[in-house]
From TrEMBL:
<keyword id="KW-0949">S-adenosyl-L-methionine</keyword>
<dbReference type="GO" id="GO:0005737">
    <property type="term" value="C:cytoplasm"/>
</dbReference>
<keyword id="KW-0808">Transferase</keyword>
<feature type="binding site">
    <location>
        <position position="85"/>
    </location>
    <ligand>
        <name>S-adenosyl-L-methionine</name>
    </ligand>
</feature>
<dbReference type="InterPro" id="IPR029063">
    <property type="entry name" value="SAM-dependent_MTases_sf"/>
</dbReference>
<dbReference type="Pfam" id="PF01728">
    <property type="entry name" value="FtsJ"/>
</dbReference>
<dbReference type="InterPro" id="IPR002877">
    <property type="entry name" value="RNA_MeTrfase_FtsJ_dom"/>
</dbReference>
<comment type="similarity">
    <text>Belongs to the class I-like SAM-binding methyltransferase superfamily. RNA methyltransferase RlmE family.</text>
</comment>
<dbReference type="InterPro" id="IPR015507">
    <property type="entry name" value="rRNA-MeTfrase_E"/>
</dbReference>
<comment type="function">
    <text>Specifically methylates the uridine in position 2552 of 23S rRNA at the 2'-O position of the ribose in the fully assembled 50S ribosomal subunit.</text>
</comment>
<feature type="active site" description="Proton acceptor">
    <location>
        <position position="187"/>
    </location>
</feature>
<dbReference type="InterPro" id="IPR050082">
    <property type="entry name" value="RNA_methyltr_RlmE"/>
</dbReference>
<feature type="domain" description="Ribosomal RNA methyltransferase FtsJ">
    <location>
        <begin position="51"/>
        <end position="230"/>
    </location>
</feature>
<dbReference type="GO" id="GO:0008650">
    <property type="term" value="F:rRNA (uridine-2'-O-)-methyltransferase activity"/>
</dbReference>
<keyword id="KW-0489">Methyltransferase</keyword>
<keyword id="KW-0963">Cytoplasm</keyword>
<feature type="binding site">
    <location>
        <position position="123"/>
    </location>
    <ligand>
        <name>S-adenosyl-L-methionine</name>
    </ligand>
</feature>
Length: 240
């Protein structure tokens, strides 16, 4: 076999074995994944604007529609790596100039510094994570964001159970830290939030909606829960 034929066989084999899982657990070969990234206008735009992820545009589109980010707010960003949502939130709350504006993020992975943000490394599902966050937050917050997603297992039911656990924990945390009239925005999977969670959120918030921003890929089963008008009582007010 000629050298170039051998190389083509090696490439074809590598292409078959190196596969990337999409959010739905569908497998793409590394070349198809790369092609999709290169052809994706959101990836190009993120690169141009200096956002660390194309996901930044999901938050931009959600906020353009619902207008929950305002200058001077305190925002929590759960599952913040690599930092696209934190960058957008910090910009929109004017965290660099407004002394009250601040974003507090947490992720399993370390995130490079972002002006106007405090970024913690850790598992939000750990027992001590909510208290670690509350210590940094120091008082009630205006918005709790969660874009947390466990890596796709390829088994839809398992993925659904994992993301439901994450969003439930995020909602429970939001109810502990939100100011009256605060917002909770979280990623859920197709079909929307679990019925019990939705029932609970409808008691705690004036409005609960589902939205799929255009930047969310059509082949992804993710959608976002947007809850506004928190009417519960945060634990900070209990303490005062
Ligand atoms: C889709 S990415 C978030 C992208 C981010 N919003 C952005 O714009 O750059 C999902 C993130 O959730 C994080 N994550 C998943 N489970 C987590 C957990 N239990 N605690 C903290 N972060 C978690 C992952 O590490 C991953 O970085």
């Amino acid at each position: 076999m000629s050298q170039s034929k051998k190389w083509k066989t090696v490439q074809a084999k590598r292409d078959k074995t190196v596969r990337v899982k999409t959010a739905r657990g569908r497998k793409l070969s590394s070349t198809r994944w790369l092609q999709r990234q290169l052809n994706d206008p959101y990836v190009q735009e993120a690169h141009r604007k200096g956002y660390r992820s194309r996901a930044a545009f999901k938050l931009i589109e959600l906020d353009d529609r619902f207008e929950f980010l305002k200058p001077g707010q305190k925002v929590v960003d759960l599952g913040c790596a690599p930092g696209g949502w934190t960058q957008v939130a910090a910009e929109r709350i004017d965290a660099e100039k407004n002394p009250n504006g601040h974003v507090i993020g947490i992720d399993l992975q370390e995130v490079e510094e972002i002006p106007g943000a405090t970024l913690l490394v850790g598992d939000f599902m750990d027992n001590d994570a909510p208290d670690r966050l509350k210590e940094v937050i120091g008082g009630p917050v205006d918005v709790v964001l969660s874009d947390m997603a466990a890596s796709a297992s390829g088994h839809p039911q398992t993925d659904h159970i994992r993301i439901t656990a994450l969003v439930e924990a995020a909602a429970y945390f939001a109810e502990e830290v939100l100011k009256p009239n605060g917002w909770f925005v979280a990623k859920v999977l197709a079909g929307g939030a679990d019925a019990d969670l939705l029932k609970q959120l409808k008691l705690q918030f004036q409005t609960v909606r589902h939205a799929k921003p255009p930047a969310s890929r059509k082949d992804s089963s993710e959608t976002y829960l947007v809850a506004s008008g928190f009417r519960g009582k945060n634990t900070f007010s209990d303490a005062s």
